[in-house]
Amino acid sequence: MNVAYQGAAGAFSELAALRFFKDQKPETIGFSDFPSMFQAVESGAVDYGMFPVENTTTGLITRTYDLFQFHQVFAIGEIKVPIRQNLISLPGVTLNEIREVYSHPEALSQCSRFFAAHPAIRQVVYEDTALSVKYIRDLNDPSKAAIASSRAAEVYGLPILIPAVQDDGGNTTRFLCLSREKRFDPQADKISIRLVLQHDPGALYHTLGIFASKRINVLLVESRPIPGKQFEYCFYLDFEGNLNDPDVAEVLRRLEYDSLSLQLIGNYRADQ
Known about the structure:
Elements: E1 2-6, H1 12-20, E2 27-31, H2 34-43, E3 48-55, E4 59-60, H3 62-65, E5 74-82, E6 86-88, E7 100-103, H4 105-109, H5 112-117, E8 122-125, H6 129-139, E9 144-148, H7 150-155, E10 160-162, E11 172-179, E12 190-196, H8 203-213, E13 218-225, E14 233-240, H9 246-258, E15 261-268
Parallel strand pairs: 1-2, 1-3, 7-8, 7-9
Antiparallel strand pairs: 3-4, 3-11, 5-11, 6-9, 6-10, 12-14, 12-15, 13-14
């Protein structure tokens, strides 16, 4: 069994894949971007893909969500991974020697307090957290450091100069495991959908009222632009429930009737 993730060995997405499938010991395959990962999952080139969808500090990860509308893939599970961003340097380097820190822009944004406290250190955007560690290792310049996971430090053989430099001690990313197969766990308790609503006053209010009428708890509502349609938006919703529940089935029937389109992304067990 193999699982795709975005980034290089040591990325948080790889860690999520290894934890989600901890009993199966999967082969992990790194991809450079999310579109190629979606294509690999949809075509069956890989068995599964582990995609970050939400972070407690930076919010929705839109680079993932915006691709659902173009691919027939299904969420079969989720996992929440604590994100501990570490300052990683060359051996023997002190904080006073560092002038530049490399990392992915989302990782840098999660460490804004560290950079505010050290204004002499310049942030440098890099394509991937784990690859930024490899880059500073190969560069061998003591003035360069990186922000990444402890696994990345281990993979590339560099020490952690300062652990946990992220702003929020509870910083966590939620990942969805996607498959080409529409598979539902009998014990599933969470549903994800994509909706395009009628362009009528009160359309979103009416939609949320459908959930309220069945006392179904809505966990997430996010709007995203529809490509090719100026200032028109779709909505992503997460809510509690199982497809075998008659109330859930009735809600989905009414949503499909009232909306321009409804895409079921998945029904899976929530990671508690």
